[in-house]
């Protein structure tokens, strides 16, 4: 009976986002080289604890906590780590997920890699210039791409047009 309780509780936590910030060792972009690099101390000095957790440790902010989720003004969304323009408001849509969502990134803005954490296979996306974790790309977005770039708002800075 204890095993069943554990499995039920674990599944409830996953469904409720309880493991949203959990990452397994061995992930990150350490093996890649990026144009913008900083020491761990420099990253920690420039970012809040949550920003560091998301951008450098591939964590996830809680859904519906980012004010950027509901901004639809004309402008560009830049990487908080290096100020590279990543997404345009022209490609933003309301996914209802609680995170800023886009159907495509700007050209040459992001990198991707396979992410096999949380018992599933996903596509992780990060800033191609500094390697900061942005979020994940899913195949349930609107046309014309059918993609949903589900991005952590703490990884972005919105710059109005």
Explained architecture:
The chain has helices spanning 2-15, 40-46, 49-57, and strands at 75-79, 85-88, 92-93, 101-102, 110-115, 122-127, 133-138, 148-151, 156-160. The protein is α+β, with helices and mostly antiparallel strands and 161 residues long. Strand 3 and strand 4 form a beta hairpin. The strands form two sheets. It has a six-stranded antiparallel β-sheet. Strands 2-1-9 form a three-stranded antiparallel β-sheet, with no helix packed on it. The chain is built from three helices and nine strands; from the N terminus they run αααβββββββββ. Residues 3-29 have low confidence and may be disordered. It has a domain at 66-161: Metal Binding Protein, Guanine Nucleotide Exchange Factor, Chain A. The longest helix has 14 residues, at 2-15. It starts with a helix and ends with a strand.
What are the defining features of this structure?
161 residues, alpha+beta, Metal Binding Protein, Guanine Nucleotide Exchange Factor, Chain A, 6-stranded antiparallel beta sheet, 9 strands, 19% helix, globular
CATH class designation of the domain at 66-161: Mainly Beta
Q: What percent of the residues sit in helical stretches (DSSP H or I)?
A: 10-25%
The whole-angstrom Rg is: 16 Å
Distance between the termini: 58 Å
Oligomer: single chain
Topology:
Layout: H1 2-15, H2 40-46, H3 49-57, E1 75-79, E2 85-88, E3 92-93, E4 101-102, E5 110-115, E6 122-127, E7 133-138, E8 148-151, E9 156-160
Brief write-up:
By secondary structure, the chain is of the alpha+beta class. The chain has helices at residues 2-15, 40-46, 49-57, and strands at residues 75-79, 85-88, 92-93, 101-102, 110-115, 122-127, 133-138, 148-151, 156-160.
